[in-house]
Amino acid sequence: MRRLFPVTDQTSASPRDPADREWSLDELAEAYAYPELAADGHWLRANMVSTLDGAAQHDGRSQPISGETDMRIFGTLRALADVVVVGAETVRQEGYRPARAREAFAARRAASGQGPAPAIAVVTASLDLDFSLPLFTSPLVPTLVVTGAAAPAARVAEAVGAGAEVVVAGEGAGVDTARAVRELAARGLRRQLTEGGPRLLGQFVAADALDELCLTISPMLAAGGAQRIAGGPSVTVPHRLAPACVLEEAGFLFTSYRRI
């Protein structure tokens, strides 16, 4: 593992240890840096949050089980990526907006040959999206819509008319997620980040396309019937990952596991 910060005693009223300070954005960027990639390589990481009892959402959204540091890491992971890949249902539920340029990461992105902000790529078979939203009408980087060759032609035309770039990654209406990874990489979007939702992450896992999971473990219990971080059919043999990074703050654990 790259780094392990000490776990703090949440019941203690003693002053915070110097090691328990807030991490700088540079430290977070170093902890979550993408690996060196071959000229034709790509790397897909997922960023998800889960309660202690396995809920990935509360009332259909992830925000209630998140926290301040989780959002700092969320922003850092976005700032390191070329593209953020997300499912259409998550776009609708979470009210997705375009990624923004962040001055704190400008020099790092420029040194890596990246543009000012990552693109957002929405994976959808039906293209049941509101193309009048800022995600499509006013992004800093054009939003991509990843779909299949048999997607509804009228909706494809509407997406293009709104300024989106349509990426075909499947022979039918649906998306072949492994092909989606390759198609995005072929456009120079090689440092990839998916923020779910659970159905899309499950598809990436089933296709053995996921290289890294960044999982925030929230110190909360939710019960109920909330989804896990990955849904869909199970794999024949569970995929084994190796721990790469563990951070802790305010009872939240911020973990990273990579493909062996």
From TrEMBL:
It holds the Pfam family RibD_C. The keyword Signal does not apply. This is Riboflavin biosynthesis pyrimidine reductase. Keywords: NADP, Oxidoreductase. The keyword Isomerase does not apply. Coiled coil: none annotated. InterPro entries: DHFR-like_dom_sf, RibDG_C, Riboflavin_Biosynth_HTPR. Residues 1-21 are annotated as: Disordered. Residues 43-236 form the Bacterial bifunctional deaminase-reductase C-terminal domain. Pathway: Cofactor biosynthesis; riboflavin biosynthesis.
